[in-house]
Amino acid sequence: MELCHGGDMLEAAVKKFYTMTNIVSAIKQLVLTLAAVEDSIEFEHRDLHMGNVLAGHDPNKPILEFDVCGDVYKVPSNGWVITIIDFTLSRLQSEDCVIFTDLSKEMTLFDGGRTMTRLMQAVREDNGNDWKTFNPQSNVRWILFLLRELIKRCEHTVKLKGLLTRLERYKSCYQMLPHFDEIFDMTKK
């Protein structure tokens, strides 16, 4: 096992990270990572906020390759590699065993009017408060949340808001794969 520095939390990333090109690359990396694990182990992160995503600068990796279900996707990284951390609230299935945190009796995550609280309430509504059930829409909800937060830090918001609108149509990251190039076509508004 090798332990390495994955980068800084997105919420603390250096200002030069917050460009449209880097944000699109980060969202692509997240979508492809989540699509792969949605398909292979029915994975949901369930807590993918700015503190649980790292942005590491590595100029030696200008292109990242993602093998998802036998298809290879190449993503220009602009030297930024995105890493997901903190799997405390995650859900996955390994063979016949479902591993998850049962949040059905947890109230503190669902109280209040903050954006993340409302997001958790929406996820709870989606899964009927049954946290064992696989509901990949939660991954999409978190991607949308991250993109909204990143838009606040970027100057090119019109095209990024167009990307947000295109991503909202999907119920899972895996479902985005056949339309991946079209979704991330940043010439569209």
TrEMBL record:
Any Pfam family: Haspin_kinase
Location of the Protein kinase domain: 1-189
GO biological process entries: intracellular signal transduction; mitotic cell cycle
SMART domains for the chain: DUF3635
Keywords, alphabetical: ATP-binding, Kinase, Nucleotide-binding, Serine/threonine-protein kinase, Transferase
Reactions catalysed, as given in the entry: L-threonyl-[protein] + ATP = O-phospho-L-threonyl-[protein] + ADP + H(+); L-seryl-[protein] + ATP = O-phospho-L-seryl-[protein] + ADP + H(+)
Domain of life: Eukaryota
E.C. designation(s): 2.7.11.1
Alphabetical list of InterPro entries matching this protein: GSG2_C, Kinase-like_dom_sf, Prot_kinase_dom
One Gene Ontology term, aspect cellular component: nucleus
Keyword Kinase included in the entry's annotation: yes
Gene Ontology molecular functions: ATP binding; histone H3T3 kinase activity
PANTHER family: INTERLEUKIN-1 RECEPTOR-ASSOCIATED KINASE, SERINE_THREONINE-PROTEIN KINASE HASPIN
Protein's recorded name: non-specific serine/threonine protein kinase
